[in-house]
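The following record pairs a protein chain with its ligand, adenosine-5'-diphosphate.
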Amino acid sequence: MSDIIQLLPDSIANQIAAGEVIQRPASVVKELMENAIDAGSTEIRLILKDAGKTLIQLIDNGAGMSEMDARMCFERHATSKIRSADDLFHIKTMGFRGEALASIASIARVELKTIRAGQKIGTRILIAGTKIEKQEPDQVLQGTSISVKNLFYNVPARRKFLKSDAVEMRHILDEFTHVALSYPEVFFSCHHNDKEHFHLPKGNLRQRIVSLFGKKINETLVPVSEETEQIRFEGFIGKPESARKGRGDQYLFVNKRFIKSHYLNHAIRSAFEDLIAEEAHPFFVIFMEIDPERIDVNVHPTKQEIKFQDERLIYNYLKVAARHALGQYSLSPVLDFEQEATRQHIERGEMPPQHRAQRPDSSWTSLYEGIDEEARRIRDTVELSQQPTDIFSREKSGQEAEVQQHAEEASRELFQLAGKYIVSPIKSGVMVIDQDAALERIWFEHFTERLANDDALVQAALFPKSFECSPADIGLMEEILPVLNRMGFDIQEFGHGSYVIHGSPAAYEGLGLNEETIIMETIASIRENAEERDLHKRVAIALARTTKGRGARRLQKEEMRSLVDRLFACETPYTTPGGKRCFITLDMGELQRRFQ
Ligand code: ADP
Ligand code: MG
């Protein structure tokens, strides 16, 4: 039999490697920025068109490349950064595999202009699908400029896989933020479709954090600085009161590389203990420096995961460092405030806040075990389905009658449990409504309806409030602003990430919500829910979520009745938009069985 094994042509081998390294425009941005840093640049400019799908250009003032290197850099495993396998254990540069440019050139049209310091004339190369189409001498002032055009032009399947511009832009800005945080001494700018998103002057880490996240963050930053024999920590954590609901701005770096580690993030979270609410997440930017021999960065092509020799030790160090930082700052006002709140709650005969967040006491927990068949069926359908709305609209008729019945019976006799649940006897047994979940469902339908009917009422503000959007969120804010305004807000852009709130949904009246907090939480929640493609739905879900945690409070009989009525007037009263149950029922049969 003849031989059948053949070596793949370079163009295909590179495309396969590209599949690992280059997943989306953001991966290109990351690789180009890291190369610019490795080249010793002090000024780095990023220019994007259509979230990088049409153009990603990076201009630096670094060391540049010679004519020969300019050709070589597109070869696979061509790198100036390591010479032997041994070097892998002493990696100081961001890149080291020599894969990035070869991969990028195999799936895009690339133009490279570069000049090495001291040379008079630079070089320009055009390359597409791994083939060099042109190389010529060119006037280049300094450093390197790389333009990556029409990403995935020759891999239509990958191109189709790209998400909306807003989502891709979000990923790009994440990568940009990671590098910008690691190198505050370097100037960075970022333009998207001719608009400047970031302009980050050279400075220290605090200044860099402020230019990335907005002026307001400054006063909440607590410095972290700790050193042991094995490891050094530098950076900032946000004071407890600045913790937000959305899991947004948490940045952990090892030797200036951004890493993703739930485990280590948890170390910092745990340092806060009960200083922040259960669902809140603290802000932090922490740099760890560890001897490169104690870690292995070569585990993942995109290098966001690394292996430590002793992760538990690092966990403990990190927790101690964060605690220490928190302790050094006078936190007593916060503690006093909490004690005061607790005292007031007890005086009003309510449970103090930390008890409210707990599950109901054990005798009531048993209610959950006895959910009747009908309710169990509802729950199962919901849990099986990602989109409860669709399922319910299909098999609604039978349940509609049931809901109607619940609605009628429920409002007769109501009492409240732990400021959290409304309990009501119904004909078949007893029903328990989760106030918080109910509120989220009610608000979600409220906003969806206002959008559909275009009939939102605005409550004009007596004193318009201005707020500043963190630069990273300006793109998202631009996208959702028209939707927010159709839902009853009256927000005007002021330029440079500033906005003025002239009015908010009239329906909010009496809820005592702070508009600015609502908008911030909405943005954070939309950012997390990037996979939901329907923008209207995303905004409605996010707005409804901002009421979360605010539903749990003591209610007057009238308020309970109104909440129950409004819940059962909903299209889909069973669950929150996220699929959490709004109410459960326990039937008489089950009750009787439990007494035997
Ligand atoms: P790696 O960064 O892993 O070495 P790359 O494919 O990203 O691999 O780059 C290949 C080589 O091209 C680098 O080792 C470096 O010598 C050179 N290079 C890439 N970008 C730049 C730049 N902006 N300035 C100077 N040299 C660069
Ligand atoms: Mg590189």
